[in-house]
Design a protein that fits this description.
about 120 residues, about 80% helix, mainly alpha, single chain, 2 domains
């Protein structure tokens, strides 16, 4: 495992995050401010602002930490052993059968309790 020097967030990192939010806010504001443009172009402006804001945010300490987390997550995902098609089908069938059986059980229990309630209230009143 590699050892990395611990870094802390600085004021410049905070400024980068604020700049990223401002870039995104400018894109959203442009969407409404440029109402005379076609809708597809306005959405491109918003998506470009989203991408630009993400690029600015990734330059901060928090952004780099987040990107490292994403890369580590992808590595861990490659290690997962996914079930085969046959296993998935078998488990799905078991789940459907159990749902059907439990549905019938609770329907029967509800019917029985409703019958008992009607019988007790008609007899007692």
């Amino acid at each position: 495992m590699t050892e990395q020097a611990r870094q802390t967030a600085t004021a410049a990192d905070s400024a980068k995050l604020v700049a990223a939010v401002l870039v995104l806010a400018a894109g959203v504001a442009g969407f409404y401010w440029l109402a005379d443009l076609p809708i597809w172009l306005r959405w491109i402006i918003v998506l470009a602002a989203l991408g630009g804001g993400a690029l600015v945010a990734l330059q901060s300490h928090q952004g780099k930490t987040f990107w490292t987390f994403v890369q580590s997550s992808r590595i861990e995902l490659r290690k997962v052993v996914w079930p085969s098609r046959q296993e998935t089908t078998q488990v799905t069938i078991v789940v459907f059968v159990m749902v059907l059986l439990l549905g019938l059980f609770f329907w029967g229990l509800d019917t029985l309790l409703a019958f008992l309630t009607r019988w007790l209230t008609a007899r007692g009143g």
